[in-house]
Fold these 4 entries.
Entry 1:
Amino acid sequence: MTTSILEPQPSRKPMRVRAETCRMFESDVLERFSRIHPATPFVMWVPVALFFVVRSALRHDLALSAVAALFLAGMFAWTCAEYVLHRYVFHWINDTAWGRRIHFLLHGVHHEFPNDKDRLVMPLPTSIPLAVIFYSLFALTMGPTLGEPFFAGFVVGYLFYDGTHYYVHHFVPTTRWGKLLRRHHMTHHHADHDGGFGVSTPLWDVVFGTMPAKRRS
């Protein structure tokens, strides 16, 4: 018996209340892995980042200032990767049945149910393969000595992204920067799906001309 992907089925709630979640899979196992507690990425990836930072700092062939610079460069690189993934992968559209299913699994579910607290951070079955790909890329192109502190910063940048994403959906920021990020992301959700791809920063939307419009003409 094959496991099929379900179309979004709102959870049972009174009709006057908008559903905040849906069942994605017939399989209970797959359904469980499609959900994640917002603390899980931090429990998983903070030790990984610390491991590579400490190992890099203990290397005698790399100065601590170089480790710090590579770490910050990795954090900055994440902001660009975040933009590219969100714009070209998560918002990839193919108007076929399988294309719509893939889009729904990758990101469409979040746009259908934006306040689903179990699907606001990246699940481990997605983040672990991505981490392996990016680590391999950095290690091959930069060498492990330079690539590992860069990767550690990249991971911390990702955690800022996941944390920011959860925060702007479930809290009301009080700082100017927090208000800007929340307005930027909510505009992407509710007014302009073709703009506002940065979550932790609007920098790359400014660079590539994709700042979201409050109303689409």
Entry 2:
Amino acid sequence: MQALKTLVIAMGLLIVVGIGFVGYGLMRAKNAPQTQQAPVSSAAEPFAARVPVPPGARLEQVTAAGDRIVLRFSSAEGEKLVLLDTQTGRPAGTISLVPDTH
């Protein structure tokens, strides 16, 4: 019976100490400096871009992906993706889609 009392008291103390740690953690998180993101200016400078189009290609799709604009062209030679930088309007890269050989 004495062992049971000791066990109950020890577990009660563990609960009280655990609640104290949770409270300490919450207070510390509340007082921690908040990280703030810099405001993103939606009124960026307008740009005029010249995009190289493959000969005989047709623009099939335009998609925004993160800080890129993706243009999908199709022609007799296959499909090509042109990536444009949204800040400058300049081509950031091209991807030629080729058939899988296996």
Entry 3:
Amino acid sequence: MADPGSAYHVKRSPLLYVLRAFALLIPGDWLKTFFYLHCIAAPRRALRRALFAFYRYDHVYAVLAGFRATGGRYSVLEFGTSAGYSFVKLLYATRYLGLAERVTVHGFDSFEGLPATTDPRDADLTGNDRWVAGQYRGDYARLRDYCEARYRNFALHRGRFEDTLTEQFLRTLLVEQPVLVWIDADYYTSARTVMERLVPFLPSGCVVYFDELDATNFGSRLTGEARLVHEINHGLLGEGLELVVDPELSLHSSRVYRFVRLGTGPQYRAMPDDNDASLVRVPTNGSPLP
């Protein structure tokens, strides 16, 4: 009787049977390996990337569309506007969804490029992003003129985040509640400044997008926006606060979060009732079908 420990369990997958058939037809290990790498592995990786690699704008429409059925005014905040590529796309999304009269898009940037930093928490440790002072410099006047010719529901705030996130501005967020905070500031220190100022004014459920979260140091908690998320979830800005990955909006990445607050604080206006009595489901059949 064969030793049961010597048997290797093979998954009964139709694809494995096909691969075995190809292996029988291809002579030599070199050709078999070449075939696998170029005809199986490479197309599979390309397809996976095409389907799941994060593209940054589909979630914007999903977030904004969720507020079309509600009343009141809202805001979208972008930190790290640079030359305005994403800012204009955010603006157009409000127009496309018919929300230009109810949603104001705010862009925050010094328009002088990245500041110099020596804080190790800002560092890229892998060499994938070697930021330098002045990188991503934008043209404030050009962007302002471009937007003024096409849109009315925007504001550009020129200066450092600590200077433009004033108490006067922050109080406007109690009226125009933020539905999306877009953080593309690259540095941990810059992102932390933003969140420290905004947290008291963010409604529970607000979407926060971190552009560099899993692009810097593979999403390591040692530096960058991933460090900030980890610290907030461990009490940096107070107890009862959490940033939770939204898998539906993030897809295969870890860039889109929901801000959640326990206890008192800003809340969104009531959404359409998902608990209406008419939505109670009565028995129809005993099968797995609806």
Entry 4:
Amino acid sequence: MIAQEENNLLVQTNRGTPCGELMRRYWQPAALSEELTAEKPLPVTVLGEELILFRDEQGKPASIGRYCAHQGMDMIYSRVERDGIRCLYHGWLFDTCGKVVVRGEWFPGGEQRMSVGQPAYPCAEIGGMIFTYMGPGELPALPAGDPFVEPTKNLRAENYLRGILAGGKTNAARFVVPNIVVSKAPYDTRSCIRWHVPVDDNSHVVFAVQSLSDFPLIGESLATAYQVLIKSIEGVASVRPATGQG
């Protein structure tokens, strides 16, 4: 058993929490590709943040904050257009970077993207899943998803760490920082990769794919997940810039 304070450190993943800042430094799956059509926005909650996913005119996924920066209207009622997504309350049009698009003859070129806007995060579509990066700095390398098949999604009413520890009962399951379990059945060349993505501190979504590549299991024993996570969190805390807010 671990102390309650240590447990809280590991399972609290909202923005500003140590574990939340660690997870935001990795690409996290937010939805299955099949869930996001070209016509309708898709609401998701990742690491305690409510987001809206939509596809741009090339079909690429984009992610912005769920509530309009103007008067907080829910963007689930918005309309996807060629240049972005439009809130239907006052007609504000947001591009894929979360900036407001304004048009008029008085703007050079007839269009301007205003500094006002709402949170927006980079997205990528790999192996039938839509990933988003919610952290600072340069984008890390994307998961190598060419051999991914059979993606699934499952909501669980438990914190992500409990799901990780329950996700493998054999020595064939390995933990990869910050929230991945890789396992392989005996005599099977395929591996199963599971992302345990927090919705909030009490629930998470498991995104699972089969990998056609026959690669050796990587990561650490599930029994050491607590220690590995704490060490990784300490590493992130040591490089975070000072904010002056304590």
